[in-house]
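ok so dumb question maybe but i'm new to this and my supervisor (M.) told me to 'just get the structure for IPT/TIG domain-containing protein' and walked off. so i did the thing. is this what she meant?? sequence i used:
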Amino acid sequence: MFTLALPTPPPLAQARGSGLSAAFAAGAVIPVGDTPGGIALTPTGTRAYVANHGSNTVSVLDTVTDTVIDTIATGGGPNAVAFSPDGTRAYVTVADDGLVSVIDTATNTIVTDIAVGAGATGVAVTPDGSRVYVTLQSSDTVGVIDTATNTVTASIPAAGTPLGLVITPDGTRAYVACLFANAVRVIDTATNTVIATIPVGPVPILLAVSPGGTHVYVTNVGNSTVSVIDTATSAVIATVGVSAQPRFAAVSPDGFHVYVANSGPDTVSVIDTATQTVVENIGVGDGPTGIALLPDGTRAYVTNAVAGTVGVMATTVIPDQGSTAGGTTVTLTGHHLANATAVHFGTAQAVITANTATSMTVTAPAGSGAVPVTVTTAGGTGTLGHFYYVPVPALSGINPAAGPVAGSDDEIVLTGRHLAGAIDVYFGTTRAVIQTVSDNQVTVRAAGAPAPGGTAVTVITAGGSAGGLSYTYLDPSTVTGVSPDSGPTTGGTEVTITGTGLAGTEQVTFNGIPAAFTVVSDSTLTATTPPSGAAGPVGVTVTGPGGAPAGTFTYVSEPDI
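this is what came out, is it supposed to look like this??
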């Protein structure tokens, strides 16, 4: 069963210079339970409920004071939370015990536990509050609960390990991410039947729906992307690359941005829904998983599964980073913004391109450093947040600088400066998935290439792009001969290994034991056999950037009396 509990990613320094965005640094960090996953805000936004998978609790946060005001004990493995439209009930999936726990939000007590079946994970409530839909991984079904009777009234087949679940604002459709089907099932809530299956990216897990219900956003763990579904046509209209291990996504109330928690590099990717591109990666806590936004769109709450915390991220200035040359399109979110007469980034005036009472779009002027963003209206001048001017990045090194043409899961380390908040890395025109990021280092995994050869490496940040390095894709190495192909168990036999693509050999092993070797040419190398504890044939493995081909060698026992 796939749960929202996460493996521990590699540690990251979380200082401003190491990639932690000001949007997060300006907010609170709230300790909660062990392995927090799903998080949901009450309809009024005054409280947040956090499912702590590891400690079998739900933490209740006051969003005015950003403190924990209650802790509710649950059954084993709470995963996700959803609210009734009036906010009087919270529904929590409890995976290990196969329950949906119903919480009275006035008293923060569990009023009933509804047995739904093993592997209860995703949960959503219909807009009229009459039904709750829950994904059940173990039975490959979606259960339907009648909230008047708190009983399961339907079971909908959803093969492929259903996990994430959302319901459209009009309540007519439920969308279910099916982990091992690489697809999203669409359920007609009037008939409780699957009416469409939409292929998406590999290993889809969680979803978010736009405020108007026109688009559904699906996080795909298999290739670290977000599939954008047009709900009118039931088709994927865009695929947006994010960073490693995306989890929950949330759409801003105005629909302008999608926020995606990336548990690998400890970031939140911000997608501009107009262009379907990532405009910022915001550094957060360790293992970000769940994310929810206030109804006014001014703050996001992010569960950090490894750290056991909830981070509060300001979303009033998005993106909050840009080039010193200016020109960044920035969305400002707040209150009483209608008919603004001026917006300043520090002392420099920005160009206003759109303006409503709660949102503005502006073009950032040139500048440097960290500056306040102020808005002037007839009512006065207020500060909405800060904007950080980012220097142009530079690259100085890459290791390894070559790898197999098919791609590899091995991490490639790019070094340089001003790399914090890296948005994308490209090998030629192929996007590489960001694994970790700091101010002087980005690690990625390279996708495959159509053919062997060198390709340019480019890193894109809010400050611009950096190049000047290359990566070489290599055909797979081969081993065609090992001569002599036998020798004593005491080792010491000098052998010649022939093949192709051997020039970059990094290691030679006999039965897994490293051997001393010398590269003679791209087709020849010599090696000295290590001792073996037993006679018999063993594998000879030659490891290099083009792969790890193998041959055989037979150890022979010495004669005795």
